[in-house]
Every structure is written in structure tokens, then in C-alpha cells.
Amino acid sequence: MSFSKWIGGALGWSFGGPIGAIIGVALGSIIDAMSNGNGDKFLGEGKRTKRTSYNTTQRPRTQSGDFEVSLLVLASIVIKADGKQDQRELDYVRQQFATMYGKERANHAFLLFKGISKQKVSKRQVCLQIKQMMDHASRLQLIHFLFGIAKADGIVTQDEEHEIHIMAGYLGINVRDYESIKAMFYNSSDNSYKVLEIEKGASVDEIKRAYRKMAKKYHPDRVIHLGEEHQKGAEEKFRQVQEAYEHLQKELKFN
After folding, report:
1. Dihedrals φ, ψ of 241, to 5°?
2. Alpha carbon 22 to chain centroid distance?
3. Of 15-29, 32-46, 230-244, where does mean pLDDT reach its minimum?
4. Which CATH architecture has domain 187-255?
5. How far is Cα 80 from Cα 123, in angstroms, rounded to an integer?
6. What is the three-state SS of 201-225?
7. C-alpha 178 chain-centroid distance
8. Which of 37-41, 63-67, 202-206 has the highest mean pLDDT?
9. Which of the residues 39, 91, 101, 195 has an alpha carbon 20 to 30 A from that of 151?
10. Strands in the chain per DSSP E
């Protein structure tokens, strides 16, 4: 798969709005770099994806490519949050993309990421576009992935958490959902309660109801439209919900 074929066939609504502008600048730098090579024509191969207007009132179906580019843009913000680009975080992004999409597609993504990471990105504009165009379950998956990047070097710094918190707000993620995902990346005696979005001291019945609710919210089938590669990522959140529930079962001795 050539780079042009990947771009031409993978993306939908993310070609419009602020994200589209960011992609355009990144592609421009790539085209300039490759113009001295074999003359590959970008966007000239592969299945064309009809662009969706950024201002549409009807939310289009988010494609895998749209999610992929959204990850790259937001990841570039998180990685630079503490004033440096840690190689472990970059390796984490590459590894996750290779796991989800395969080595060749991951290489294409990183070629685009290099162009994105050189730009100054408006968190608000980008996140508001994603909020308008992407379903809630997919936005939760974005936040989970961003925390994974931040934790790749062993700790989520205050600056990184601050950036993710701001983006979560722009993405329309409520406080309880945000704290639930955040708790999956910190070690605390109260984490199991936070993951299940309940207060410490909740009754057994409340814990069971919370587990059923969260298992439904984080079920991998909620992002089935993004493709099998993203279901694998969603399985991690689902597993952590199960572990939180099992921890409370053992701690409080109930079945």
C-alpha cells in the first residue's frame, strides 16, 4: 500500500475543518520531501472518500481513518505537554499503531505524525470538530489512548494530565467518565470505585449496578464501526472495568 493510496482511501470527515487544515500542511511537507523521489501522486490513488462538511448538523459515521488521524493530532499535543518529546512516548504511539494497523500502515501514520507534530495545534478547534463528528464511545477511546501515551514513560505528569483534562472537556467527556478512565492509569486504593464511577462505601447492589452500566458503556462492540483494530483497544478498558469489579468482590466478599 503506497502512502497516497492510504491517504486517498482511509479518511472521511477529518479532511474538513481544523483537522483538515493540519493534515494539509503536513501533507504539503511530505509532498515536498518526496517530490525529489519517485514522483508518487498523493491522493491520486485508492478509493476516494467523499468529504463531509464540518458544519453539517448530522453526525457522519466515523471511519477508522478519521479516528486514526484524530489520535495523531491529539497525541502530538500530549507528547509535547511537558516541553519535550520523550522517545518512550513516541515508541508507544508507534507500537500501538503497529499493533492496531500493521507495520506498513503505522509507518504511513508516523510519516504524517512528523508533519503534524511540527505545527501549533489549537486544542479547542480540533476537539470541537471531533466532538461534533465522532460518537461518544469513540471519544472515550481517544481519552484512554492519550492516557496510555502519557503513561508510556512510567508516569503521567501533571502537565500531561492537564492537557488531557482540557481536551476531554472540549470533547464533551463528563467528569465521571473522565475520572473513570484516568483512574485506570493511577495506583490508588480508591481506583476501583473511580473506574466504576461510584463513591467509596457504595453498597453491594450499587456496585453491581455500576458494573453492569460500565460494562455496557465500555463494551468493545460500542466501537465496532471503527474496525477490529479499535475493538482490541477497547477491550483494554473493558478488562479494567472487570478487574475493578473483581477487586471489590474480593475486598467486600460478595459474589
Report:
1. -65, -45
2. 17
3. 32-46
4. Orthogonal Bundle (1.10)
5. 13
6. CCCHHHHHHHHHHHHHHCCHHHHHH
7. 13
8. 202-206
9. 101
10. none
